[in-house]
Amino acid sequence: MKNKQHSKPRLLWLQSISCNGNAHSFLNHPDLFSILSHFELVYHPILETKHTLQDILKCETECDILIIEGSLKEKGLMKAGVEVSSVIKHYASIATHIISAGTCATFGGMFKQYDPEHITGFCFDGEVQTTRYEQYAQKLISLPGCPIHPKWLGFVLMMIVQNRPIAKDSLHRPLELYAPTVHTGCARNEYFEWKVDTEGFGLKEGCLFYELGCQGPYTHGSCNKILWNDISSKTIAGTPCFGCTEPDFPKTTLFETETRMGIPATMPLGIPRRAYLTVTGVVKSFRIKRFEERLISYDD
Amino acid sequence: MMIKKLIEKIEGEAELDFTLQKGIVEDVRIRFGFYRGIEEILVGKAPRDALVITPRVCGICNHAHLLAAVSALENGYENAGIAVALSSKARYIREFTLACELIQNHMKWFYMTILPQLERLTQSENGENHALKASYLSGVITKALAIFAGQWPHSSYAVPGGVTCDPTYIDVMQAATLVDESIRFFEQVVIGMALEEYMQIDAVGNLHEVKGDLGNVLYLLGTHGIAEYGKSHDRFIAFAEGLGMQSGKSIATTVSKIDVRYVQEWVQEKSMAKAVSYKDRMYETGPLARAMVNKIPIIKSLHKRYKDAVLTRVFARVHEGVMLLSYAKEVLQKLDLSEPSCTLESRLLADTFEGTGVVEAARGSLIHKIKVEDKKISHYDIIVPTQWNLSAGTDQEKGVAIKAMIGAKSMEEASFLFRTFDVCSVCTTQ
Amino acid sequence: MKIADKKALKRESIIQTALQLFSTNGFHKTTIPDIAAKLGMSVGNLYNYFSSKDLLAQEIIRYTSEVLGEKIKEVNMLDVSAEEKVHKIVEIYFSMAKEKPEMIEYFLRVYLSNREVFSDGCEGMVCVSGFITEIMIFFDDAVSSGELRNQDFFSAFGLFMGYLGGMVFLKGEGVLPKDIACYIDDISRNIYYALKA
Ligand code: SF4
Ligand code: SF4
User: Fold this and answer.
1) Which ligand has an atom closest to residue A119 CA?
2) Which of B11, B138, B146 sits opposite A27 (nearest CB)?
3) Residue C10 has pLDDT above 80, yes or no
4) Is there a domain that residue A3 lies in?
5) What does pTM read for this prediction?
6) Which H/E stretch holds residue B216?
7) What spacing in Å lies between the alpha carbon of A291 and ligand 2's midpoint?
8) CA A148/CA B195 separation, integer angstroms
């Protein structure tokens, strides 16, 4: 059925249970329209498109790349009398690429917590494969993040257009974007190295790992390498990383580090506890004057 | 005759059931489909988790949810005996980022909803890519927001006692430059005139001076006879102070004080959205309401002539965007970086409390109520602006948007009127 | 035997000898020539191994902490309850106090009372990290299995080590009426009950 003459891949953006955050995040991409010029936009939840949602719900439209936003519920989410999950499955089966945009579509995300048994991601339920996985895995690209980082989606779309191979991890996340941890490139790295805790919120000095719940060292994603809104990131702005790209997002007590006898309960990715504690014990023994002072002081 | 219509691209969708009599809209029922259960998700979590969870109510007004959540927590702390004294630095930074989000929102609504829909309704499409303008402005102004908040959407940078960021004067200067760039965009594209001159306009008689895309919208509304449609109860309410504005309600020419305790919320039949009223009456909330409560001269003048019709409502929203840009600039100038960003110790937590937070979001008053028992959230209630504007109404009176649509000459026209309220589906079905 | 291995052995015997002399005669009273004489080596040769007395002192504490750490690591690897682990750690500590009293003595009398010797290069926990790390791991495991109460590291560590140190001190002063091993059961129980969840 595919129209061979079709020069531009047809892009379809469908929403399930979502907050629209991924759509809005992508709308901030500075090169949005230059990226979109490589596609024929079949449907999008915010942008003007050739087709209406009613057209799309009929399942008669062609599509090459399907972007899914929001978590899935097999039964019970209807739009104009049509079960959304069946519409998504239809387009997923005809598309050549499926992008699960955001943590909800990828793992179930926040909305999963309302009905954990029935609400899941498209191919993953947390980190467990759903029954849909078998059928769609081969064309699946997971782009978790709550919301999705606009640049990451932009890169992946362009890689598809240019037919570049995309290396992925076991959860189908592109390695070029998700192999590093959020900790990589954080402006507070020096303080992490020397185990210098921040003294509280609202300070540019100190690391947020020991007290304030930062999950950067064990969260996959390049938030501190490819900055948010081209200018900042949570940890730069003093907010802990909440691990929003991970299958178990969101956990609870997000502004506190869980510790056991003062030792962080979760170790930086892949670091054996013994190694971490050895280094910590050594490093903590030194008092470095520079790290105890404010970098800049405005009062005088 | 009853006809169902799916309204899309309103931050989700809504279904409208129109009752038509000889083509004229006689009644409308508004239905929102899917309840996402955010209030339930919050139960059992640590109080501060609300700062991460509630922004996810909505992709376009997430920041307002964050600020409502943090004020609910702070109010709760105060009720529990912990004094929360924000530094003026923290207060200004919060105001600044909120203003940025509102500007982003208003411009997206203007370019991605109102302009294209109006062009369609009046058959005056010219193929221009309005979304490009929305995306540009949104990119610029949310970048200014992110300098302080780390990111947009879904920042959680406001915490009890202040903000997590610790900006430098270079940060502040960068933010100011981005606000200037947004002002330039308004001058050249939206209003087609210098900001200073625009600010002088205080009466309907001078509105013709407005050029740019806003001028075009005013022209289309005027020449197609739509300007005076969409009148509703002509009652307005704004609960939160801030952004240089006062709270209150406005009926006819009187503005009076209000109290959140008189807000009532109830479940509506066949819709996942709850309705709200103030002392049993329906009120409109949003930029028009804020302008009426604050007696903004140009809006008062428009109101005198058009009441709460489409023209007043649409103009008020864009006008608020302009005012907020000037306000945002002022706020940045007032920042004193020697003050602390956060005045509460991060480990200082109240175990049991109740608190209410109110914020003026893009679409109007947003209310968060939190109840915490034994360090866990036991109840959370979110009342969003769209609930005010889109509720079905009471036995005595129709809801605000419904009343505005009744009498419309076609479903298309009614849908356009509906969209002038800047409907947000996801907020409504949190 | 390779040269490197030979050197390592020599190093260790220097450490052992110095350890003995430091703890019996006191740190300040013991000189490098004393140590060299006891080992039957020249002072010059000893300096090839350790360029100063302070460095030697630091090396000894690192060595002691590692020996102790290794033993506790074995306990940490066992699949037994926290209560049993407490017992085993106490046992290790006391048997060391009995069999190698110079090690514990050294820790108490030299390391803790001559802090200035250790201020440069042995700050804080640097030289005892082998031991501390294993204690941390013991605590961490026991809290995550729900056996011990979660609290600040130092409040738990102080209770555990302060108690053991106190007992060894009493032994050293010769005031303990019974053999120190007789106290293992009671002391382990006391520690466990004090830290238990
Ligand atoms: S992943 Fe986050 S941003 Fe995306 S729809 Fe879900 S809640 Fe919204
Ligand atoms: S704040 Fe978080 S991301 Fe930054 S250095 Fe510390 S642990 Fe790493």
Assistant:
1) 1
2) B138
3) yes
4) no
5) 0.93
6) helix B212-223
7) 15
8) 35
